[in-house]
Amino acid sequence: MNIVVCIKQVPDTNEVKLDPKTGTLIRDGVPSIINPDDKAGLEAALVLKDKFDAKVTVLTMGPPQADKALREALAMGADEAILLTDRKFAGADTWATSMTLASAIRKLDYDLIIAGRQAIDGDTAQVGPQIAEKLGLPQVSYVKELDRDGEHLFITREFEDRAHKIKVKMPCLITTLAELNAPRYMSVEGIMDAYREKEIVTWTRDDIEIDEEALGLKGSPTRVKKSFTKAVKAPGKKYDVDAAQAAQIILDNLKEKYII
Amino acid sequence: MNISEYKDVLVFIEQRDGVVEKVSKELVSKGREIANTLGCKCKGALLINDINENLDELFHWGLDELYLVKHKSLGEFMTEPYAKAMTHICKEYKPEIVFFGATSIGRDLAPRVSSRMDTGLTADCTSLDVEEETNNLMMTRPAFGGNIMATIICPEHRPQMSTIRPGVMPMINKDESRPSVITEVAVPFTDADANIEILEVVKHTHELIKIEDANVLVSAGRGIGNPSKLELLGELAEKLGGTVSSSRAVVDAGWTDRAQQVGQTGKTVRPDLYFACGISGAIQHLAGMEESEYIVAINKDDTAPIFDSADLSIVGDLNAVIPELIKLLPNK
Asked: Which of A190, A205, A206, B264 could form a disulfide bond with B284, CB atoms 3.0-4.6 angstroms apart?
């Protein structure tokens, strides 16, 4: 069984703070991590590998320093890692990103493609389904539970108001939720392997078959017209008093605002 | 691509068990407004197996025409039959704008349809406008965990597609005199379209009041300490005529359900009153609730960022303050 896991290196947005005065982002010193939903996808692949002896290939598109995310994935137990990197890929929206990733995946053997549901920096949740579309594969998104029997996957897909128990034949693409599992830590041996034994394969634009017009910013149907931070709201009154007084203050304010 | 061939606004009318989702009515109302600005029509696409309600209300909110696709494969949501039907309608009727609710169904379906149409898609928008000079749709969305707002355009491809967050578009300008015009559309489905098999549907029954519909939310953060405290919060919510919601941390801990999660990866809420109890106020959380009318925050940590967004901030132990408050509140 061949599994391809698509991961993205993202800034840890939980660590991002807003400058309260200017409302701008403080990005300095923010660590880069494997996107949490993708890491759950990788763990799911490694669990299948433990059970069924699968080969797990991790794939990322990004700047050269995204190799750190791939090393981490190798240290967790992935077998191979591919870094898609080229200046021509820069500025890609989800359409161009999925075209590029799909072109890379076409070169690989796969039974299952796993992508995290969404990245915490872009929050689009679009690249997974768009890769599935480009490759003409069935997709199951929002995967909360996963098992395999022969050529079929058995999946619990989580929606807002219901869950679906689904049977799908491979090859297919699934998108995973962070709550699918608790990703394993890198082992010492794994880290040694990741840096000494295993290699990261780098592919550029010339290594994949794709129309020049489909790449990067030029290939992207959407454009960012402008970006801005939200206006900072003036904070209300703050009280540090005993519980009874605090309760009275809340009550008075709710009455004053006609909420109760 | 000849952009001028494309006109009208098309709204994907999402249904579950034959009943139209509220977000679709919000999008029809917004679609009507945009259609008026552009001088075009607002249309809907309903893909369904069995209709379980009167559809007139969709027209009252602003639809000029509804494309109806009825087929047995359109009951419980499956990506491929839905994507096929939406793509068919987009190719046949060439809308310039297509809206989907940013629900799990909309966000599964829209990327497939936009990709098949070779056009752009903007995810999870919270505001929509038309640019005056170009008539391009300006789609504004939060990114970077809600830290940044970005306005996206799709200037050279049609349709311009977006998914739109439930609960952010107001339902306005209802007109009960607008007639119902339904056009049945035949889509050439094949057996191969059902490329997944739904073995079982497990409906979540515990969701009493949807948090996005509640006027008052008492919201639990990691600072509540342990799940037994949710009872206390529930008691306060009951006294205030509201319900309990929570931050992502509390959902991840398994103390509350995902349906109760407020924030960037949960739901956007704008109740009259939002009680943030032991919520530190991560930006991802603020993105989901900062439009609430009145925000009360209770937190032990004097430096919690939630206090910067609250209208009333109480530095203190919620286990002491909330019982006192419950005592003071009149019974409903």
From this structure: B264
* Backbone phi, psi, residue B149, to 5°: -105, 140
Which residues on A lie below 8 Å from B207 (Cβ)? Answer: 161
CATH of domain A2-214: 3.40.50.620
What pLDDT, on a 0 to 100 scale, did the predictor assign at position B330?
Answer: 83
Centroid of chain to Cα A29? 21
Cβ pairs A/B, distance under 8 A: 254
Q: What pLDDT score does B304 carry?
A: 94
pLDDT by residue (tens digit) across A18-77? Answer: 666 665 666 677 889 999 999 999 999 999 999 998 999 999 999 999 999 999 999 999
Cβ–Cβ contact B309 with A under 8 A: yes
- DSSP codes of every residue in chain A: -EEEEE--EEE-GGG-EE-TTT--EE-TTPPEEE-HHHHHHHHHHHHHHHHH--EEEEEEES-GGGHHHHHHHHHHT-SEEEEE--GGGTT--HHHHHHHHHHHHTTS--SEEEEES--TTT----HHHHHHHHHT--EEEEEEEEEEETTEEEEEEE-SSEEEEEEEESSEEEEE-GGG--PPPPPHHHHHHHHHT--EEEE-GGGS---GGGSTTTT-S-EEEEEEPPPPPPP-EEE---HHHHHHHHHHHHHHTT--
Pick from A222, A238, A242: which is nearest to B307 by CB? A238
SS3 call for B63: coil
Set out the domains of chain B in order of their start, with CATH numbers.
3-193 (3.40.50.620), 211-328 (3.40.50.1220)
Looking at the DSSP assignment, which residues form a beta bridge with residue A202? A83
Confidence grade of residue B214 (pLDDT, cut at 50, 70, 90): confident
Average pLDDT rounded to a whole number, residues B184-211:
89
